Amino acid sequence: MNHWTDVCAFDAIDDEDVLRFDHAGKTYAVYRVEDRVYATDGLCSHEKIHLADGLVMDHVIECPKHNGRFDIRNGQALGAPVCVNLRTWRARVHEGRIQIQPEES
């Protein structure tokens, strides 16, 4: 059964921003957009670059290396050079803290 894992305080991530979160040997990208939180795999599916170094605009993360773009709500790759979707993870705000349900080891 998946459990919720604490990431950080809600206000530690600015609106339209992303934070790298490493947990149990895996890297996640955690986003805040319009006071909602989202989580995806933390590495671009194109060349395994950390998405937390990218740019968030609306609900899209742009990879910093080749400008590949993904919809953070569902992980959908939005065009070349990326063609493989990101995996998404459940995220929530609980008592002022962002939590995700990460992949179980």
From TrEMBL:
Keyword vocabulary terms for this entry: 2Fe-2S, Dioxygenase, Iron, Iron-sulfur, Metal-binding, Oxidoreductase
Domain Rieske, first and last residues per copy: 4-100
Entry keyword Transcription: no
Cofactors (names): [2Fe-2S] cluster
GO molecular function term, any single one: dioxygenase activity
Transmembrane segments annotated in the record for this chain: none
PROSITE patterns: RIESKE
Assigned protein family: Belongs to the bacterial ring-hydroxylating dioxygenase ferredoxin component family.
Record-given protein name: 3-phenylpropionate/trans-cinnamate dioxygenase ferredoxin subunit
